[in-house]
Amino acid sequence: MFTTLISPELLAEHLRRPDWVVVDCRFSLADTEAGRRAYGESHIPGAVYAHLDEDLSGPPVTDHGRHPLPSPERLAMLFARLGVGQGVQVAVYDDANGMVAARLWWMLRYMGHTAVAVLDGGWQGWLAAGLPVRSGWETIAPRQFTGSPRRSWLALLDEAAAAPLLVDSRAPARYRGQEEPIDPVAGHIPGAVNFFYQQHWAADGRYLPPQKIRENLQALLAGQLAADAVFYCGSGVSACVNLLAMAHAGLGDGRLYAGSWSEWCADPEREAAII
Fold it and tell me: Which sequence positions are flagged as catalytic?
């Protein structure tokens, strides 16, 4: 069972297995249809597509951020439609080093399905390895999904503010409040520290060795337990990369504040810290 990362070569060896599901999560905030178009033009054979706005987000239930976490019922319906059921191994990928794919990785685990891994190196790594691709639109037979949310993995707004360790996963300039290209207010949640999610991979897009990731994150945790750490970003998407890296390094499972900065800064009563 693969539970964090999987290499292109290993995924290619399992493509024909009926108990494997591959999900393409390519998406662009600048052009929300770009990922769907790219999938239709070329994708990993057998992969189905999941859209960040339409599939990996839902009507506000636990949070009111830019990409609200779908309800458990909607998640169960989505996973069933994607062909995820008991005993199924899921592999997810995008073209952003797992930034969006990690969101689906986290959501599946949140609902109790741990047999899910992000493609190391993503779509670019697959192409660089010279592995096969296919065009067009593919579907998969639905399966029955049974699972329930692990509430302790999710932090709501006030829980995030009270966390022993709160980690902002955005770029340093956004954390410091020097720039804010997306949300109406710049800055970060008071008390949060910064660990940019893109620090987990090398220049080739492949993730750093687990020991190196472990060293980096142990310095971040500074003695805190992983379960006491809450991670956020702009809308609860890229923060999942930090959670993926922590699990891959063997440090355990942190918590996600899905509403993230987009929810926090929408409340004029909430302070924005600037460095």
Answer: 233
